[in-house]
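Can't paste images in this forum, so I'm doing it all in text. The chain is below; anyone willing to post the predicted structure tokens underneath?
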Amino acid sequence: MKRESLKNQIRAAEDRIELLRREVSRLREHNEMLDAGAKDLRKASDALLVALGRRFGEEVYDDETGELIGWRISLERPSVEALKDHRISARIDQETDRMVIGIIREEATGDA
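Text version of the structure:
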């Protein structure tokens, strides 16, 4: 009887281990999807920064060759707190194929 009880406990533990293995596998797949999404978001934000730098940035030249090596923008330090007071809208203008970004102060709309 004791041996049968131990066998049942072992089977239950093995079943639990298999469930946990499946859960770990599912979580790994989910983590890979999240990681890919984070990389895509980083690429999109980098592309936006490049577009902003090229359009509004100060040109930077190599001191020795005089060759244009890039652009520089100086901004206030970004604050996640500022998001609570602003609403952002972004779209592609189909006629000009340009991105139009609107930043609206929430106090101005009375939505605060």
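Residues 24 and 109 are 47 Å apart (CA to CA). The longest helix spans residues 2-56.
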